[in-house]
User: Fold this.
Amino acid sequence: MATTLPLTPARTLPSDQDASGRTLGEAEIAAVSAALRSGVLTSTKGTFVSQLESRFAAMLGARYAFACSSGTAAIHCAIAALDPDPGDEIITTPITDMGALAPILYQGAIPVFADVDPATCNVTAATVAERITERTKAIVATHLFGNPCEIDEIVALGARTGIPVIEDCAQAFLAVYNRKFVGTIGRIGCFSLQQGKHITTGEGGLLVTNDQELARRLFLLINKAWGYGDARPDHYFLALNYRLSELCGSVACAQLDKLPAIVARRRMLADALTQKLRDLTEIVTPVVARGAQHSYWKYCIRTAESMHADAVVEIAKLLKERGIVSAPRYIQKPAFMCEIFQQQRTFGSSGYPFNLARADAVDYRLARYPGTVSALERVLVVPWNDRYSEDDVDYIADSLRWAVGSISWRSA
Assistant:
């Protein structure tokens, strides 16, 4: 039976929102100082961003990598690189940040939402297949929380139907699926360097690809489509300035050195917590596919079917008393329930690009998404950090036991 009273005083855990939970230190300070002393802060003439790109590509075993100004910019460039026509459809997940969806609309395409596996909150090849039509231009496969989705199967599905796959790896640095780093399995991989990610520059993004033609387009899309280095450069098509500055690039270079150790420690600590919770039958610990390696951006549990519907919210409230700020039900509702989709608020009063959509593509009835509803109803996102001590992990485990044991529950 779970303990019913806290055994130790509440404590403050390291947080990725400040220095307590970040690896920023002397190496980053030295790198920023070098960038400032050079007087060259634009990546078009500096060296740090180009170093970051070559080193990140080498780390993942990809042919090409490009840095950009945010994870949202990375998704936007990836979508734009595939050059959808207005009204084309991009299959994606309803459990994601708006930064992964707005770029689809900005390119005049229609986000079409596939259901998810409630155990992982990830889309599957089966749920994606249900949404493919003759208008499908691409599939965005998200590795939520650092847990790889069944990306080989989704890429194989795309190959059979001639549809390229973009991997959203914003939360999944160095996650692995069948011995391959996520981001290198689809046509384009997108990463985020935002404040709370495995490594950070505050804001920033990275893209990887093995496709030479797409690499050229990604480079141009980051640079206003200006052909830097061409014999007769021009602005070849519509594109924005999504460049990463040398200041951010210098920080990222220092952070990149630390990334393997960061992910290794997150995995070690997560494995320890999973072991400590293995006999707590009221919750389900992270479900990771055979052949996959989770990189634990967050540690997500799911309340068991024996727990009542609001148990996840009650557990979160009790954890907050213990200084553990978790996120019950993660984003609270499927992304398509946000006003941007429900009210089609995009460009003035035009309704564009929704006015080009098939009725089925914008059918947001919850009955079509049973896995998503189930996933959000029971998921609890526990904060995770490579700067936790083993005592911190013990504290989280004890607090979860106390919280679960303190709430009322009933059999299904």
Observations:
- The two ends are 18 Å apart (CA to CA).
- Residues 159 and 165 are 9 Å apart (CA to CA).
